[in-house]
Amino acid sequence: MRDLIDIFLNYLSVERGLSQNTIVSYKRDLLRYDRFLRSISINDANKIDKEDIRSYLVYQKEKELASGTIARSLVAIRLFHRFLLREKLALKDPTDVIDSPKLWKKIPNALSFAEIERLLTSPDIKDRKGMRDKAILETLYAAGLRVSELTGLKVEDVNLDAGFIRCLGKGKKERVVPIGKVAIASIRRYLDNSRSKFLKKKISKFLFLNHSGSQISRVYIWKLIKAYAREARIKNPIRPHILRHSFATHLLERGADLRSVQEMLGHSNISTTQIYTHINRDRLKTIHRTFHPRP
Asked: What is the CATH number of the domain that holds 208?
């Protein structure tokens, strides 16, 4: 099984061109799956049946893994078995009769307009770090970027005169996303007054840099968002994609059409974007209960 997992992961990397982050996640999911199978004395892909996979899903639930983690693991397992069957490395696909756990899809958290305003105004733009952090937060919210997309931005990817950012999303799919005047001003201030101070005497193609003048990391961005959220007194749970979720939610709340939001987010399937419409419905229900004379 371990050899088959390695072959599959190599296929995802070389032929499908998936990002390293996605491959690492799939590897983690599949190795956990393999450990479970070994614990029930299965070490041959041809001996796995649908009941084994259902047992594994129940096992994960009993281990109190997050619903999103369980759903993602099933995606990895399904792709793995389909690959084995297609490449004639296995005789059957035990996942073909297992339904996707639609009820496990988690509605993403989004910040309110007031919380976004407090978060984006938290950095002190009097120093180089504050200018950079302000530009980072404004860019994430203005373009709805994934954190990994933001860290991979190069200086040449940003056209401030035209008001567009070019980024590389999942599966190395390139997309162009518009940004507003506030984000443009923040990025320009960072480029004019701050970035060279991070660079010192180094040379880097990346837009956002850490204190040593190198490409900023996803973990650093995650810690940065959490720190400013505390400063802004935001009580909602803060996750790495919080600004991306807020971007999509606020666009839909203000009347943007779903297809345009899908394109800006870089979703290949519109059903992924439709998750955000549930947030809008929940908000309308809350308003109705609060203000209608007969709730």
From this structure: 1.10.443.10
Please give the full DSSP string across 42-56, using - where no structure is assigned.
---GGG--HHHHHHH
Does residue 295 fall inside a structural domain? no
Q: Which amino acid is at 34?
A: D
36-40 long-range Cβ contacts below 8 angstroms, 24+ apart? 37/1, 38/1
Selection from 112, 145, 107 nearest residue 234 by Cα: 112
Dump pLDDT digits (tens) for 238-269. Answer: 887 889 999 998 998 888 888 888 889 988 77
Tokens of 72: 């993602």
Burial of 25 by CB count in 10 Å (0-12 exposed, 13-18 middle, 19+ buried)?
A: middle
Write out the residue range of the structural domain in which residue 233 sits: 113-289
Whether the CA torsion 110, 111, 117, 120 is positive or negative: it is negative
Reduce the DSSP state of residue 161 to 3 states and report it: coil
Just list the catalytic residues: 146, 170, 241, 244, 267, 276
